[in-house]
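W.,

You were right to be curious about this one. When I first looked at the sequence I had no strong expectations either way, so I just let the prediction run and decided to look at it fresh. Below is the sequence, 192 residues in total, followed by the output.
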Amino acid sequence: MPTRKKPQSIYQLKITLSGIRPPIWRRVQVSSDYTLGTLHQVIQVAMGWCDGHLHSFTIDGEDYGMPMDDDFGFGGMEINDETRVKLSKIIPGEKFKFSYLYDFGDSWDHQILVEKVLPPDPDATYPVCIKAKRACPPEDCGGPWGYPDLLEAIQDKNHPDHEEMLDWVGGSFDPEEVNLEQINAQFKRGFK
């Protein structure tokens, strides 16, 4: 059985969803050997997204993502292949910031801050989410500008759209609830 090479470094990242107050964020630890493509998968699990939309990273003015052809209408968009770029090649150290955009329609912009560069813990399994605040908004709710309207509708029994929106989110939605154990259990099962 082949042994897995231990990562050289661990990046502690704080991923914050832009345009939402109070903030929604996750603190994760990932291997420096991960590609941006793998980080995309980590963000999807940690935040609670369903990975049903296009995405991109912007790092020092360069865009990274899945190469697209003209079938999506983005053929003219210059994008670097996220599966070929390791985090260790683009992250110079602590306090480095970059962004991740999920769902080009709803425009869920995430700010990513490299909080710490750590040695790997031989007893740890990566990725791991060590802290999380507030629930991820439901997919397709209209982005940062539509999410407050959704919350208003589901929290006010007298709102004309209350029943319809409550049904749309599956019967209940608590914007404060986030399950760290569930996130990490999904990481352990494999996230792609």
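Here's what jumped out at me. The helical segments are 36-47, 87-90, 143-155, 162-168, 180-189. And, maybe more interesting for your project: The chain has a mean pLDDT of 91.

Coffee later to discuss?

I.
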